[in-house]
Amino acid sequence: MTTPKSDFEIPEQMREFAEKSVDQARKAFDTFMDATQKAVGRVEEQTNAAQSGSLGMNKKALDYAEEHVDAAFQLAQKIVRANDVQEIFQLQSDYLKAQMEALGEQARDLSESAARTAGDVGRKGTDS
């Protein structure tokens, strides 16, 4: 007579499928980001000096978005390798804490960049 297991176990085949799916999604996203970065680069080359501050902020925001998506993929990879539900909850909790800290830092950085850009544009407007 066997005793029923109380732990939630993920079958190995299901883990492999999930891991392959995450890897494929990651590759597709990386291809998309490469194309997007190239497009942003071309736009930056075609703009004048007055727009450089806002383009820099757009690039920075795009970089931040890429960092967040990368962190989400890392979380997904960790989750498919988790041994139990408790570990999944801990991984998610750690992820959310790190993301909130990153968002706070990024918001401060973007705010400072916006203030610098506004100051630069204001100075250029009075120099003319």
Automatic annotation (TrEMBL):
Domain Phasin: 31-122
Pfam families: Phasin_2 (PF09361)
Region (Disordered): 106-128
Official protein name in the record: Phasin
Lineage of origin: Bacteria, Pseudomonadati, Pseudomonadota, Alphaproteobacteria, Hyphomicrobiales
NCBIfam families noted in UniProt: phasin_2
Transmembrane segments: none
Species assigned in the record: Breoghania corrubedonensis
Domain of life: Bacteria
Cleaved signal peptide residues: none
